[in-house]
Amino acid sequence: MVHRIIEWSLHNRFIVLVLAAGLFTWGFFAVKKNPIDAIPDLSENQVIVFTEWMGRGPQLIEDQITYPLVTNLQGLPRIKYVRGSSMFGMSFIYVIFNDDVDIYWARERVLERLSTVSRSLPTGVTPQLGPDGTGVGHILWYTLDAPGMDLGEQRALQDWYIKFALQNVEGVSEIASFGGFQKQYQVTLNPNQLLYYRLSAAEVINAIRTNNNESGGRKFELSDIGYIIKTSGYLKSVEEIGNIPVKNQNSIPIRIRDIATVQMTGEPRLGIFDQDGEGERVGGIVVMRYGENAAAVIDKVKAKMKEVAKGFPEKVKFDIVYDRGELIRESIDSIKRTLIEEMIVVSIVVIIFLFHWRSALSIIIQIPITIAASFILLNASGISSNIMSLTGIALAIGVIVDNGIIMSENAYKHLSEKYEQYLHQNKQSASS
Fold it and tell me: What pTM did the predictor assign?
């Protein structure tokens, strides 16, 4: 069979060259299409359900939230297993699906089941799906270099300007903010004053909630002009909160400022983010969507960051602290360098030992065609270009080169023997 293929190839050289050129062209476009990442994604095909119920202990979270969710989500189709984790104020459910299940189909099934399970959970508790990213989806970390701006203002800039802009980039699943202070109005009640005025914390909360509202009325016309009636009652400052009446005693209103201290402060934190020992920083983590091209997403995010930076206050700029794109470029440069070195070494070895440039050329041509064809198989198998796959290709180049040298040397040897036999026969016939 092999002899027939070789014989057919020798008699149809033009067809073989056309097929090789077509295979190389197909592989070239496969290289452009293949997703590029630094590390292989070996994470499980999972959907995360996150539920928050602050102020409750792990055992209560386990009994009231985690256990009902796990038992109900186990009946979903095409799942391997369901894992649950309970901690103070939070519950995490990991629904692991089969590897061949589409992640967005899986998220739809989980969301459908949550719509029925939520009714059995405590009042005010709402489970929500985690981002459609993977465990290796953190492709870029950045911080804000903002001299003269306090941490609360930096966090507000991150949460209300940068985050919304970067989330619109194609391929980005989530922008996770970290560091700084999340601004909030804080009302600190004085228990002695509450006792004196005979008030409860629930009455104070209800007074603040009912006064932080906006309602609309009807539309009426006067002199052929339409007017819309509405009341604007959203709280906008510390003074407005302090002036809210809670109760009347002897026709004298008891206000929030009489029983509590109102201030603008940050939400309590469990930790800080320090960069290089130079102080706290505010920043964000770019999480890539499942199945996206990491290199392309990073380039789009960086381009968007340049556009966003134009709206920053003076002297504020991005500081990228982790960029997987650098590792991706190093991996690509490594295989390019290996490919060039292999071609040069093979050419030198074949020319020195065989003194035949056509043999060297035939071996060199095999390398790019084989590599291009390997990317066709990578796309068909859904494997991205990463350190593992590129390293495998780089190692395979040595095997390709060895086979090419052995085959060329063997063919050269047999042709030389045939040529010597031909000369010997000619001499015998000439002497006779």
Answer: 0.75
